Amino acid sequence: MLWKLLVRSQPCRLYFFRKMQSTPNCKSFLAYFTTDRKSNKENERTVEKLCKFSVDVRKIRKLKGWVLLEDETYVEEVANILQELGADEAVIASILERCPEAIVCNPAAVDTQRKLWQLVCKNEEELVKLIEQFPESFFTVKDQENLKLNVQFFQELGLKNVVISRFLTTASSIFHNPVENNKEMIRLLQENYLNIGGSEANMKVWLLKLLSQNPFILLKSPTTIKETLEFLQEQGFTNFEILQLLSKLKGFIFQLCPRGIQNSISFSKNAFECTEHDLKQLVLKCPALLYYSVPVLEERIQGLLKEGISIAQIRDTPMVLELTPQIVQYRIRKLNSLGYKIKDGHLANLNGTKKEFETNFGKIQAKKERPLFNPVAPLNVEE
């Protein structure tokens, strides 16, 4: 009886198995039960060579174990290039543990990458430090001809090597852009700067500062930049005022879109109950009113109101909106510890960078602790 049941169930099993084979979504499920030992076996030579350089293979298994399955790896070749630059065993191990895909990079491409990065590094010691800090950027060995041409273009533009090396590590995508695209974007930025009243004499300084603070502007569409500037003009900002915004927001103004700007402007106008002229003055004092989204602005205003700060105070010192609610709470607590009631005073002491706040706090503290009179000072009395 049991045998008959098994025979009857067999066609169902076969049908189920065939159904799964014909269904793409079952691929991973079938792969789990298919034993292809060869493809899942680690390359023993790779593991041995990594151990030779004191690399913790367990970290690689956890991070990117696939590299250990590769048939062709270049552990010794990559390690030798790093050694030639002056990297010791500990540094090499650290680099390979954090960026294990380095061992599947072609040694010739890695050597070319080394030469390209040396164009902007003052010495090999500095290069090793950069590779140790940003191994993923260094071992992304692609578009090397673009990288070379873009490095040369940025140098000709006047950017310092230290700035270009920072781009290589934190904004590497701009080097994958064809150099002609980057040149075209630079020409567009220069043209727009002059069109809104910028001077030829100040243009280079402005452009280099803009690129230094936001190199990703090179990845923007020329249409986006044009639309943003035209929208600001439609909102009543003069060319001089747009120049002011450009100098304060740098390239970040080009990350905005007309719809986002419009939403932020409408929200701020309602929140502060002000006219369009007054709102423009607020924006010029605090361009972040354009940059931050409505939810962020709403959260920050509500945070200030909860601390007893009035809308009128915020309107007088709108730059306070650049601070997160957490920073505001921390600073208010510090000022309260000195008996300074922020809701009764001006927000200038709350505002500013961390360094500026600490300086102001120190002055308030010193003033509070200063004695009313100097008991050892001679009294000026008439004989």
Task: Detail the topology: elements first, then pairings.
Blueprint: H1 2-22, H2 27-33, H3 44-52, H4 57-64, H5 75-84, H6 89-98, H7 107-117, H8 124-133, H9 135-138, H10 144-157, H11 161-170, H12 179-195, H13 200-213, H14 222-234, H15 239-249, H16 258-272, H17 276-285, H18 288-291, H19 294-306, H20 311-316, H21 325-336, H22 354-369
How would you describe the overall organization of this protein?
By secondary structure, this protein is mostly helical. The protein has 22 helices and no strands. It has helices spanning 2-22, 27-33, 44-52, 57-64, 75-84, 89-98, 107-117, 124-133, 135-138, 144-157, 161-170, 179-195, 200-213, 222-234, 239-249, 258-272, 276-285, 288-291, 294-306, 311-316, 325-336, 354-369. Helix 12 (179-195) packs across helix 13 (200-213).
Could you list some keywords that capture this structure?
383 residues, mainly alpha, 22 helices, 0% strand, globular, disordered N terminus
- Work out the helicity level: 55-70%
The secondary-structure class comes to: mainly alpha
The biggest beta sheet reads:
none
* Low-pLDDT segments, ≥5 res: 1-38
Order of helices and strands: HHHHHHHHHHHHHHHHHHHHHH
What's the number of helices?
22
**Rg on CA atoms, Å:** 31 Å
Query: For the residues shown, what is the average pLDDT?
Result: 84
Molecular shape: globular
Quantity of strands, as a count: 0
User: What percent strand?
Assistant: under 5%
Distance between the termini: 132 Å
Quick structural summary:
Helix content is about 65%, strand content about 0%.
